[in-house]
Specification:
By secondary structure, chain A is mainly alpha-helical. In chain A, 65% of the residues lie in helices and 0% in strands. The chains are: A mainly alpha, B alpha/beta. Chain B: Residues 128-171 form the PaaD zinc beta ribbon domain.
Chain lengths: 284, 173
């Protein structure tokens, strides 16, 4: 019985060999000069996935219909899976003996590096889906660019996550169109949701010294380069959804990436971290 | 002291007896998630790749692989997680596809994985997905998607409009 079906396909074997070799020699993982910025940037990647994943998981058991409940729980699972990879690499780069779990469960709010957009409360299903769509459209472009990262470790995580995020984007854009171009009630709710979260989207493209350092090292793209692609996807989907792009500034709220958060993050952490804080080292 | 080590082919055969915990009609090797078996001196190394990043079955699969190999007498064992190249349903064997169908799960239609762009647009323009999934029960192609997700991350929910049965579709990934 051929137990490895693709073993005869040369490019897969080559890819696997190249990947194994690359894993052993990522030039950035032990780069002392880059360490602070690389670690911080990896925390941004991991924290966005962790906090959005946690938010979406709050719908588990509360979805309006069973299929949506399951879909949201599955999306949350994917995001928590990405968190393990990003924070796992962050811990490795930091080299201080911390694990991905330590970073998730034992950091305080001001050490979290996620966007404010992802920590906002879920609101109704319209806010949840609109926020997810606007983030998915960004996440998709970012991961696509990261598959060409100069860091093989970053590139392989991005390639894995991209397959799942492509699915997230298809699902959320489909739902934005169906609900935006749906009933009077669903249209009004989707427009209200868009107006509510719009001012938080600009932070995704706001660059600081950390972004510049990883971009210069070829690890990540310049975020401003992703903006036109995001605008095109968002413009197309909103138009099809018969929704109006708000006129207010899209970068009204920022600071999450630097650790300045809304009060909402503290409540998420209180729930998420309680067990490890109250019973250090507990496992099951 | 130096007992003869089992061949890697023998190990592959043993792993072929380890069922997927969620879909027990197929084995972990038929799913294509065991990527490599090799000996490093006296240590057996098995590289396993996750299907979906957050799939909760991943740790159960590791445990089942370890249990099986220990039962076969392997004492010095290391499991390696391999991310690259990322798992694809192209690696699900033909035999496994027939077993999935017989079990009531429509097997993946190759070449239809999400790309976040064209497939999404096509789905939107046609109102629904343009993918035709045959009912694993009656064979009808008159089916509809109920949800992009199902009982596990790797499946979507469909319904047959002829025999009216709901069924799972193992998504192309």
């Amino acid at each position: 019985m051929p137990s490895l079906p693709d073993v005869a396909t040369p490019d897969v074997v080559t890819l696997a060999e190249r990947a194994a070799a690359a894993q052993a020699q990522d030039p950035h993982v032990a780069d002392v000069a880059l360490k602070t910025a690389f670690f911080d940037w990896l925390c941004r990647m991991g924290d966005n996935s962790l906090i959005l994943g946690h938010r979406i998981s709050e719908w588990c058991g509360h979805g309006p219909v069973l299929e949506e409940d399951i879909a949201l729980a599955n999306t949350a699972l994917d995001l928590i899976g990405h968190t393990q990879m990003w924070l796992g690499l962050a811990a490795e780069v930091e080299g201080a003996g911390r694990s991905a779990d330590d970073l998730a469960f034992l950091r305080d709010a001001m050490k979290f590096r996620n966007l404010k957009l992802v920590e906002l409360p879920n609101g109704d299903m319209a806010v949840t889906l609109m926020r997810e769509f606007l983030f998915d459209a960004f996440h998709f472009e970012l991961l696509t660019a990261l598959t060409k990262s100069s860091s093989p470790r970053v590139a392989e995580i991005a390639a894995k996550a991209l397959k799942e995020v492509s699915y997230h984007l298809e699902r959320s854009s489909d739902l934005v169109v169906r609900l935006g171009d749906g009933t009077e009630e669903s249209h009004a709710r989707m427009q209200a949701a868009l107006n509510k979260v719009w001012g938080y989207t600009g932070e995704m493209f706001a660059e600081d010294a950390i972004d510049d350092a990883v971009a210069e090292a070829g690890i990540a793209p310049a975020l401003s380069d992703l903006l036109p692609f995001w605008q095109r996807t968002v413009g197309e989907v909103l138009e099809e959804a018969t929704l109006r792009q708000p006129e207010q500034r899209f970068d009204a709220h920022s600071g999450g990436k630097q650790g300045r958060h809304t009060e909402h993050l503290g409540y998420i952490l209180a729930e998420m971290q309680f067990l490890q804080r109250a019973y250090p080292g507990a496992s099951w | 002291m130096s007992a003869v080590l089992p061949s890697t082919q023998q190990v592959w055969d043993w792993l072929g007896e380890v069922p997927d915990p969620e879909i027990p009609v197929v084995s972990v090797t038929e799913l294509g998630i065991v990527r490599e078996v090799r000996w490093e001196g006296q240590t057996l190394v098995v590289a396993v790749t996750p299907t979906y990043s957050g799939c909760p079955a991943t740790s159960v699969i590791d445990l089942m692989i370890e249990t099986q190999l220990r039962e076969k007498g392997v004492t010095d064992l290391r499991l390696e997680r391999r991310l690259s190249p990322p798992w694809t349903t192209d690696w699900v064997t033909e035999a496994a596809r027939d077993k999935l169908r017989a079990y009531g799960i429509a097997p993946p239609v190759d070449g239809t994985a999400s790309d976040g762009l064209m497939a999404g647009r096509a789905a939107r323009l046609s109102g629904r997905s343009n993918l035709v999934i045959a009912c694993p029960r009656c064979g009808s192609s008159h089916t509809e998607r109920v949800s992009q997700y199902g009982s596990t991350p790797c499946k979507a929910s469909y319904r047959c409009r002829d025999c009216l049965e709901p069924f799972d579709y193992f998504k192309c990934h």
